[in-house]
Design goal:
Structural class: mainly alpha
Radius of gyration: 20 Å
Number of strands: 5
Strand content: 5-15%
Strand order of the largest sheet: 2-1-3
Helix content: 25-40%
Distance between the termini: 47 Å
Length: about 210
């Protein structure tokens, strides 16, 4: 079976996702002959799925014969484009609690030169909230509209910051976050402008600063 063009049914992908959830990740991957994804993950309803394996199974649901890892043609680029064409969100790397801790969100004062230990208190970011924000709002910057994959190439698909409209800095208590209303995707440049000088500018303020 050549290429992924025969896969046109979004429902077939959803059936593959249901099967993945039912049997578990390792059993699903073994069934279709795929290894764990190194980069590309399909985001759906708060979960992350190995994208190529999902496509392989989905081909079986639509065409009657699944696509195994041996038969898979076109590589990761074709997998990403296919899933996106069917209306799914794809990110280039797995979203974890560690990946949600953006280095530019720590205090901007760093010792340089001699090695020393620095202890910093910082509010933890939720990987689940970040994933939900991306799934709901996409990966285009809310302010300037940049989509990294379209501008810099496939390997940067899904690269985006998630901005807390009400900043976590200085918070001492746990807070419930609604990804729909409390979070939004912004590019690193716009994120830096939002917080430049210790401020928390609104999206509208930053948009007015843009030189178009």
């Amino acid at each position: 079976m050549a290429g992924l063009s025969p896969l046109t049914d979004r429902a077939a992908v959803l059936k593959a996702i249901v099967e993945y959830d039912a049997v578990g990740r390792d059993a699903f991957l073994e069934r279709y002959g795929f290894g764990r994804a190194k980069w590309w993950y399909l985001l759906h309803e708060g979960k992350q799925y190995d994208s190529k394996a999902i496509i392989g199974a989905a081909m079986g649901y639509q065409m009657g014969t699944p696509l195994t890892a041996v038969d898979f043609k076109g590589g990761e680029a074709s997998a990403v484009r296919k899933l996106q064409s069917l209306g799914f969100r794809v990110t280039r790397s797995k979203i974890t609690d560690e990946s949600s801790m953006l280095p530019e969100e720590v205090p901007a004062s760093y010792p340089e030169g001699n090695r020393r230990t620095v202890t910093v208190n910082r509010a933890e970011r939720s990987a689940e909230a970040r994933q939900a924000c991306i799934e709901m709002h996409g990966t285009a910057c809310t302010v300037c509209g940049i989509e990294f994959g379209e501008v810099y190439g496939l390997q940067f698909t899904g690269l985006i910051h998630v901005h807390h409209l009400a900043p976590l800095a200085g918070q001492t208590d746990l807070r419930q976050v609604d990804p729909q209303t409390d979070l939004c995707p912004v590019c690193p440049n716009c994120h830096a402008v939002i917080h430049h000088g210790g401020a928390n500018r609104t999206l509208e303020e930053v948009e007015r600063c843009l030189k178009r």
